[in-house]
Write a structure and sequence with these properties.
Protein name: DUF493 domain-containing protein
Order of helices and strands: EHEEH
Structural class: alpha+beta
Radius of gyration: 12 Å
Shape: globular
Low-confidence stretches: none
Number of helices: 2
Helix content: 25-40%
Pfam families: DUF493
InterPro entries: UPF0250_YbeD-like (IPR007454), YbeD-like_sf (IPR027471)
Number of domains: 1
Number of strands: 3
Organism: Candidatus Thiodiazotropha lotti
Family: Belongs to the UPF0250 family.
């Protein structure tokens, strides 16, 4: 989740793709907040290991434009 700025969704997908290549457009779902200030991006994938999930979470959490990662 982050501020609804141009390129936010693409940035999230790019970060996740570093660890889980082959993400398709149908695996990505975005939703804006009621006021339009925030955007949440959901990426559905099949993780290969806990280490892979941890690496994705760490990269997302470390990015300055990501406010929250679940």
């Amino acid at each position: 989740m982050g501020k609804a700025e141009p390129g936010f969704e693409a940035m999230v997908v790019e970060l996740i793709s570093r660890h889980a290549p082959g993400i398709t457009e149908t695996a990505v779902n975005s939703r804006s907040s009621k006021g339009g200030k925030w955007i949440s991006v959901t990426v559905t994938l099949r993780a290969e290991s806990k280490a892979q999930l941890d690496a994705i979470y760490l990269d997302l959490s470390a990015h300055k434009k990501v406010v929250m990662a679940l």
